[in-house]
Amino acid sequence: MKKTKLAFLFLALMLVMVSILQGCSDSSSTSSNASDEKVNLTFSTWGNPGEIKVIQKAVDGFMKENPDIKVKLVPIPNDGYVQKLQTQLQGSQAPDVFYIGDGDISKIIETGKLAPLSEYMNNNSESYVKPEEFAEGLWGAARKDGEIYGLAVDCNPMLMYYNKKLFSELGIKSPQEYFDAGEWNFKAVEEVTSQLRDAGKYGFIVDNWWGPTFSWIWANGGEIYNKETGEFVLDQNEKGIEAMKFLDRMIDEKNFTYTGSLPKGQGAEAMFMSGQVGMVGAGRWFTPLFHENKGLEWDYIPWPSNTENKTEPVGIPTAYMAANNDSEHKEEAMKFVTYYTSKIGQELRLAGIGNAIPSIGGIDEAITESKVPEHVQYIFDAREHGFANAIQSTIPGLDKEVNDIIDLMYLGKDNAETTVEKVATKAKEMIEEHKSDN
Questions:
Q1: What's the CATH fold of domain 39-156+317-385?
Q2: What are the distances in angstroms from CA 302 to CA 182, 245, 361, 382?
Q3: What global pTM score does this model have?
Q4: Fold observed for domain 159-315+395-437
Q5: Antiparallel, parallel or unpaired: β 277-282 and 202-206
Q6: Which residues pair with 40 in a beta bridge?
Q7: For residue range 240-295, what is the model confidence (pLDDT) as tens digits?
């Protein structure tokens, strides 16, 4: 009887031990499987098919370095991009990482939906980039009260493209000759565009948005907003008003042609390539297109400076990359943001004949070595002196209001003085409303 009991107890003990060991085995197996699982991130941006292919290069590069993280690129059409993103954020359905335009980031920051990046960038060894690596003038509205909410993915300083072949054929002194002599100013611009106009060509195509508008004003030593207080000061700034008068007169005298007045179906880039226009203003986004046109001879020239300085600040359009503050994988999302905007990520996207330049130093050679165009260095010089849309973009809706008012001047319905007065009234009103709401 005792033997039977002992046998029974031994059997029971063995069953318990097997159960425990099986449990340990299951636990170990589960843990192992969990560690093998990938973190899945979604990443949204705008872009044409060619741009999406370039963006994918950086996504692939990140996943190769971080095999435990999978990033799915989900393009969103440019038309309605911000509206869709806002809807997604409000419904907690937004991607983990996304692009935001320089004119939209301030209103997204106010929602609290963007993850603060400063702590991660400065103190986490997983970060691929530090704040000090970015050109200081590029932060714009992405940095608020000392906190960083978005990183410049790249940048596009404003400069001018000129048709070298057209200038040569018409016997017009080139912008480069004026610049070499230290005379590339408003007077020189008027001289060359007058000659182009008299030859039956378009002198310069002028656009209506903050990049070129601010560049013309800064080029004359003027100010639009007080950099310290954020107050609108153009209406009290003689140099700034002079610049607006110059633009108004150049339109009236047909030296400049407004994009909004071009024949239907005609774009500045197409007219430039067909030899109809001498100069256009843009960032590097026209470069790949112009480079592909083998019969086109063209080059960069800095924005004309009307002061004693050879160059003055220009507008620098950029887009920012941000992480969703509600992401279930916020750390991994921030890691991807820093990779994508780091030297590694930007070089993967921008090397060669790209449509932008780096927002950080150290990899300029990847573009300057292409020698496209001959004076490619000018766009990097512009990066060091220019600024992103830092103040106007922080007031939701103000960009559009300003553009709508200036549109009337370019269409010949208002003069420069009236335009500045109207912009001043609207800007001051919206700035005050914004202050009271916050």
A1: D-Maltodextrin-Binding Protein; domain 2 (3.40.190)
A2: 12, 21, 20, 7
A3: 0.86
A4: D-Maltodextrin-Binding Protein; domain 2 (3.40.190)
A5: parallel
A6: 70
A7: 999 999 999 999 999 999 999 998 888 899 999 999 999 999 999 999 999 999 99
